[in-house]
Amino acid sequence: MDGPKRILDDPSIDPLARSLLKEAAGEVAAPAIKAKTIAALGLPAAASGAGASAGAFGVWKAMTIGALLVGGAATWTMTQTPPSPLTSAPNTGVALSASAVSASETPTSETPALKLPTSDMPSPMTPIPVASNPVAPAQSGRTIGPTLRTARPALASSIGALHEHGPPAATSALAGATPDVTEATPPKESPSPVRPSAEPRAEASLAAEAHVLERARLEIVEHRAAAALATLDGYDRSFPFGSLRPEATALRVEALATAGDRSAARSLGAHFLAKYPEHPAASRVRRAMDGTNP
Amino acid sequence: MVDSVIDPNAAVHGLIESPKAASMTSEEPHTRLRRLVDDYFDAIYRAVKRFGAPTSLADDGVQQVFLVAASKLDSIEPASERAFLFGTAFRIAKELRRRVKDLPKTLEGEQALLSKADSSPDLEEIIDQKRARLLLDALLAEMPDELRAAFVLYEIEQLTVPEIAQALDIAAGTAASRLRRAREAFEQGIARHRAKEQFRAEHARSDAVKARKREGT
Questions:
Q1: A80 CB contacts (<8 Å, ≥6 apart)?
Q2: ipTM over the 0.85 cut-off
């Protein structure tokens, strides 16, 4: 069935209409955004065909989906038992991986982490049933969708160069992206507690960090500045050497601006821009600072 | 009444949930996924934005689309890839927008940014682009979601009518009629914009004349 003539091909239409559409059709995503997605999918950063085998991809897929569960449990764990700052990242990783697996166990499923991709997967925006456990009060009712949590760890690859104190292991695990197949398969083969390798642990820690920051971001978007600042305080306590600190700082500038604390927003914003002038969040920070001009 | 574009319980975009779909492509899953990203990333990014996802969440939205694709890769028929991705983009954008209540504020923020244009040529170019996109988004925002989706997919992303029907899970005839109505709405919006522009220009002229007179006296 042929459609009508497209506006772009129709000289009888107002040229303004054509130029708007042409402009829109030419828009491309910033490379960093694409790189983030590629990392979140666990694909090798090089051109297609290079790197990981299909098996490794499968494992990464499982880990990615697994990270949804990890991300879901993260907030709860942190709110229940604030880990001691210096050890929080690795500890959280282990604890979360284990709890994620147990939380997702169902009587019928032997492969919890691999269950999601099948045909009975909920529609994309349906929260994945991490919350079948009685936990996760912190994310009740206003999350953007579980996949965001997984996506966020990939931030590390795009901002890795900008780390303040980020542990090198965390970034290399994501950026390097050749997963350890033998370590990552246990969820499929054995119901016994999983002992993740360093890579999934780093991933889990990043997922936990990203989860907290995602929450702060939503709170800012919803103009709940006090809540956002409290969330960011929590982030600082839990991840004093977190990999996503620059992002956290950027969010704090936005939260301060939202709260109406102009001078604090501007001074922290200036500090941020001096330190990370090229950071993807820099434009957001500038905008937040501009918004505080009298 | 506006009918629902996506029935969440309907079979997703006409996909056949069977292993057959996967065997129809000889590609390894990761190769295929990588190809989807390479071929469609920009288009999906554009679509998520033009479908009305808040700017601040568009990056995440596009990522979500591909995470969904990764999780359903086995059941996406090769011929349906494009429709699947755009259909998913539509649903995700809709969901993101639903969850963020203050979209107008985001737009205001963008407008404020635009008003701060300085004279750097690069920036001016960027501002022009931004202005064009803002105007386009404002025109699109006046359309009901269903018309907007059909319009974006046809006029910007150049999908065919059957592909749009598949992506939005509607009949081809419905897609064609939405397209027609969307185009009418768009042309009317452009005409309104033209009229406003002219009005402003006339005002600016008369203001300038007054100012000159004042200087002369």
A1: A135
A2: no
